[in-house]
TrEMBL record:
Cofactors demanded by this protein: heme
Domain of life: Bacteria
Binding site for heme: Y339
Key words, A-Z: Heme, Hydrogen peroxide, Iron, Metal-binding, Oxidoreductase, Peroxidase
GO molecular function: catalase activity; heme binding; metal ion binding
Name assigned to this protein: Catalase
Comp. bias intervals (Polar residues): 8-26
PROSITE patterns: CATALASE_1, CATALASE_2, CATALASE_3
Keyword Nucleus among record annotations: no
GO CC term (a single one): cytoplasm
E.C. number(s) listed in UniProt: 1.11.1.6
Active site residues of this protein: H56, N129
Gene3D superfamilies: Catalase core domain
Amino acid sequence: MAQDKKYLTTSTGTPVSDNQNSQTAGAQGPTLIQDVHLLEKLAHFNRERVPERVVHAKGGGAYGTFEVTNDVSKYTKADFLSEVGKKTDMFIRFSTVAGELGSADTVRDPRGFAVKFYTNEGNYDLVGNNTPIFFIRDAIKFPDFIHTQKRNPRTHLKDPDAVWDFWSLSPESLHQVTYLMGDRGIPATWRHMNGYGSHTFRWTNDEGESVWVKYHFKTDQGIKNLTNDVADKMAGENPDYHIEDLYNAIEKGDYPSWTLYVQIMPEEDAKTYRFNPFDVTKTWSHKDYPLIEVGRMTLNKNPENYFAEVEQAAFSPGNFVPGISASPDKMLQGRLFSYADAHRYRIGANHTALPVNRPKVEVNNYQRDGYLRFDGNNGGAPNYEPNSLNGPKEVPEAKPASYEVNGFAEAVGYDDEDHYQQAGDLFRLMSDEEKDRLIETVVDFMNPVRQEVKERQVQNFYKCDPEYGRRVAEGLGVAVPEGVK
């Protein structure tokens, strides 16, 4: 056969003679099992959808570049942040949290903001949201929380009662709930929202000195949000609006960008700061720890294939590089395991070798085999260590900095139980118009729930701010119980 024409083949390269008609026993006869091309097509089609993400199922992504614009080398030895002007390729995935793959982009929900930096020291993933805080602060509560955001096991319908029942019994959620029910709960587009690392992380410099750090990606396009009415209308008319907006903006050369800032906290401050700095339901005061510019992220290339590059993109907050490491944040500690484990289940043990996840640097380890091992599997090289066959060895200088721990091995919570002040502060920062919209959204969302749940949540709002609680109570027709402090 001539080689100047692209021939249709089976997955093993055999030319396909007929892709329009299956083999049958005569013109009117039943289909023959010997038609291996038909069987291959049907079998592959049955397996085209990998299990969707349990959370962050619906999303979109793009490639870009991160460029350092300010010298932060005194804080971290991370090479991709080592000098002004240094550029690093990156990939980002935006998403909603609770909905399925077919859900609408404009629902009221946090947005995932997951960034993969392809550094020359390996991949660094910063897996955050468009909010600086979260609903819970211990990973042991995460499965329960997400169950309330999904479908009722009996009705298979979304269940506001479960949502508010959980939140009302988990007052640490108040800060994030107030943020989510406010104006920023529905971004106009992914381009017009901020992104945050949310958790506290650790930076360490060449001298072994460490600081605690929080990440803030500030959109250069400005903040824009949708009202409930517009968002509902968009959900019906164009449920993929955010995916479409990002794709079209990049295609026409309108490249969105974000400026990355960090807050830096000296290690010793963590012992005496007025809030636990590792509690992801809290923020650090910008007056105490001002924003420091780091660099700019610009998105300039759309994926060529959504499934291969967006659906198979796998992020883990445990993917660090030298100079960046974890803090004792209880939510972060759980995510260090759960994200990579979810990817091993969803797309296989070798997911890090897929093109979108593969680092730019050479990978050397002793992990072998597993489903869909599609490279050379390290040939005949030794699959154990230590060995005397010149296999890859440890890099002691890449060891993360240590931090002091003490106490008893037991199941304990944070020692800070003030779940109300920061949520109240956020409410008091709002304009009258913002407060009106917040109250309206909360009341509409809570109307279907049980009376006892309404009363319990009203008490929580009242503890944040009396006006907050009173106005929600009035909207729901609920009396604020006596004795609420």
